[in-house]
Amino acid sequence: MKYVGQNVERVDGIKKVTGDLKYVDDMKLPRMLYAGVKRSPHAHAKILKIDTTLAEQHPGVKAVVTGKDFPKKAGLYLTDKTFFAVDKTRFTGEAVAAVAAETEEIAKEAAELIEVEYEVLPSLHDAKEAIKEDAPLIHPELGDYRVVPIFKPVPGTNISEHFKLRKGNVEDAFKKAHRIFEKEFYVPHIQHTPIENHVAIAQYDREKNLTVWASCQSPYAVRAALSDAFEVPFHKLRVISPAVGGGFGAKAGTTLEGIIIPLAMKLGNRPIKLTYNREDEFVSSYVRQALHSKFKTAVDKNGKILAVENEFIWDGGAFTEYGVNIAKSAGFAAVGPYDVENIHCDSYAVYTNNPVGGPYRGFGMAEIHFGIEQNMDHIAREMEMDPIELRRINAQKPGGTTATGAKVDAACGLEESLEAVVKEIDYHTPSEQPADPNKVRAKGIACGMKAPSMPNNAGSSAVVRINEDGSAFLSVSAQDLGQGSDTALSQIAAEGLQIPVEKITIKTGDTDHTPYEWQTVASRITYSTGNAIIKACEDVKRQLANLASRKLEVPEEELILDDEHVVWEKDASKKVPVRDLALGLQFEDGSGIHGPIIGRGSFVPEGVVNFDPETGLSEKPVVFWTYGAYGVEIEVDKQTGNIQVLKATTCFDVGKAINPELVKAQCEGAVVQGLGSAIFEEIIMKDGKFQNSNFADYKIPTSGDMPEMTIHIAENPQYDGPYGARGMAEPAMIPAAPSIVNAFYNATGIAMNKLPLTPERVVNALKEHNK
After folding, report:
1. Which end of the chain has fewer CB within 10 Å, C or N?
2. Of residues 196, 281, 633, 730, which has the active-site annotation?
3. 596-609: per-residue pLDDT in tens?
């Protein structure tokens, strides 16, 4: 192929490195006002009274709104949230009221003048306590909420989703087991910390058109949620996302948009802007849900896993309108990349009075694999087996089955990826130890898998327009969050049209002018949008071939696109430039067939079957699985507790690498992000209040933490993927943390069931075990 599989330069590269790319926060519209937000200081409290008098009288203030003004609930999967607290607050930092003023300074001053009288209520901050039958209810009205039917809230409890997986006969399998192992793990909340904070502008004009400019991952999903919440029809609501400076799931749903829209609707025709500062970003946008997990594993004498009984309790926070989907996704991937005949899994999304939990890179997979992959190493040690051999025995293989009973596709590259990593890291050769006796080195390994968690109607679409000079416009609504999708999708279009990538301009992110896209989530864009683009290019080709066949007087079906021409397969000298057909065909007698040439394509995955609500089984619950493995070498300083990742190697089966360098860049970013979750990152709260909502106290990896990285790519083509490709952006992070923790055990002999491995935690563990 000419363009697919090639390392072309990023199409947005120059704009980004020069600063020419304009983000929402760069925008300043005429007569723009700024929002200030009054937030709750309590994790759980009744609102007895809100007095906005002083704020309304403050010079420069133009409008004030509270939850009573717009009380309708919103949510993508479960309509359980309001954008302002109504009657009571459910987490510290929840918006209670907002003002619009002439400057940001005035808006903040006025928001502080709003007086709120509360009655503090008992609050819940541990999901294991909140799930108990006698726990106070955070959402007593749960049974009245609208919900997408595939989710199962439990009214009268704090359980907003209960996904059950029942495969085989677990009870019999445990009776036959040679050994049974039980382990528990905990993964804390962490923050997405995108470079670009959340920001949005809303304007409501005199014709009742609502326009929202937002740094968001999924303009159409945001439009749907806002349309429902504020009762604005789709044709009157436009969402524009000009550029996104990082998302990782934090910008997948709606957050601050719902705060400024009421102000815009109250004022009319004046744009309102709200930009989160870093503390707002921590407290008031999504966090990754915390997870309590339990595993009970039955194994035969050869190391074959006979059965797994596990439980996942997700701390969904105050609202789980997005979090319910994470609990479901974890449930149907209950045992990770291993073929287990008997499974009993319960996965719960649970309300607490903690910050709102939402999607984060990996969508629950990194969290459950932290336990799954440590459990594999633990079983291997207890059985006196090689942990690599244990994984080989149990790995999902072509023709095997997934947790839901679906057949494993022939393109499963798990074993291939594992072997590549074992070889690269030289896993079975012990690490060379440093001269310093207080330091010790060791290697660790982990596997992982992920599928796109999306409904069977999750569609993508694309429009391709040929210009008069033979260049092309590609229009999609997939958002480039930094992952390079603009480049990869342009390469797919270039291959389909046989036009150089530099002659294609891609336009994204405007619900009035770019075609429908379900969401930019789930590592689905290369697969779903890529397939839509191929169909749009095929539509263009049909139109061009129809015109060229008349001009060249050859059969339409014998024409192909090649090097910016429509060419006769049987005689390449008979061809016509694409540019000559862009506006149609003109004949000498004055008659003609007119263009312009505009191709359209849409794609919805075929054959996806919803889960059985009682068993969680499905013959095809997802479109594909992406498999891979990690290997790391770490150094532990036993005096300071500091862990340094020296080397990291990864291999993932991506089907077909549309742009190999971008795939490697994704894996490198995933190594770093996974390293952060393993060693540094943890939201610390006291009674629901953040204790580290800034980069002075919340640590993320820096350049000094970068390991030596080696990235491998396996390519077993996806049968229905665009040129064989499948998504890999999220899967690339999943095995990172468990590989590091497994290496830590190999270095110290200490198992750690809680993340992160901070210096304090490491030193305490070493002291406790007299190491």
Report:
1. N
2. 730
3. 999 999 999 999 99
